[in-house]
Design goal:
Blueprint: H1 12-29, E1 34-36, H2 37-47, H3 54-64, E2 71-73, H4 74-86, H5 89-100, E3 107-109, H6 110-127, H7 137-148, E4 155-157, H8 158-167, H9 169-175, H10 190-194
Antiparallel strand pairs: 1-2, 3-4
Helix pairs in contact: 2-3, 3-5, 3-6, 5-8, 6-7, 8-9
Length: 198
């Protein structure tokens, strides 16, 4: 709990209360205080569409695991969830860039983007999370690359990713990790559960 001092505090006391409730939910579901890939996939897939979302869950987990140690702790979890819910467009796009940059080399190749697009499409269609997109994952990847790879080097840099997405609503919608597809639920506040009014 000593790590809490480094967490972003955006909404004062209500944020601290909500953070506490996230911690309680996290510890209830993961008593060790850590989530492994297998546990995350099981929880994530049960909350979405089963095995159809397993590959997307794997990529989300990899992105949550900031230090690459193979587990996600509460700090990594809450920092990402907090940012996805309340972060600026640039913060969300930075996080999404890490999701697409599978090998963490600072650039997104067409193959990396295609693999994530295919995982997202597979999960979204199975869950009916979004209206059917008339474009295939390959067509979306090609369209995104045509618009974002400004220097035509077959790699999208972080700068190209953010600038291009901020300039194009369709691309931003395609690339931003949407918390509603990740089934991020804010935990109920304890006083709301107990029927206590402030």
């Amino acid at each position: 709990m000593g790590q809490a001092a480094t967490l972003p505090c955006r909404r004062g006391e209500s944020y601290v209360t909500e953070l506490y409730e996230w911690f309680r939910k996290f510890i209830n579901e993961c008593p060790s205080g850590l989530i492994t890939l297998h546990e995350f996939q099981r929880h994530f897939c049960d909350g979405t569409v089963g095995q159809e979302s397993a590959e997307y869950a794997k990529q989300i987990f990899r992105t949550l695991d900031n230090n690459g140690d193979g587990v996600v702790d509460f700090r990594e979890y809450v920092m990402a969830i907090s940012m996805l819910i309340e972060g600026s467009a640039v913060e969300k796009l930075r996080w999404s860039f890490k999701l697409y940059d599978k090998d963490r080399d600072g650039g997104i190749t067409r193959q990396e983007m295609l693999e994530i697009m295919q995982a997202v499409y597979k999960m979204s269609l199975a869950a009916a999370l979004t209206r059917p997109n008339p474009l295939t994952a390959e067509e979306c990847t090609n369209r995104v690359f045509a618009r974002l790879d400004r220097d035509n080097n077959a790699i999208i840099s972080l700068e190209e990713f953010i600038e291009g997405a901020l300039d194009d609503d369709w691309i931003r919608e395609m690339l931003e990790c949407d918390p509603t597809t990740v089934k991020v639920e804010r935990p109920l506040r304890r006083d709301a559960v107990l029927g206590i009014h402030g």
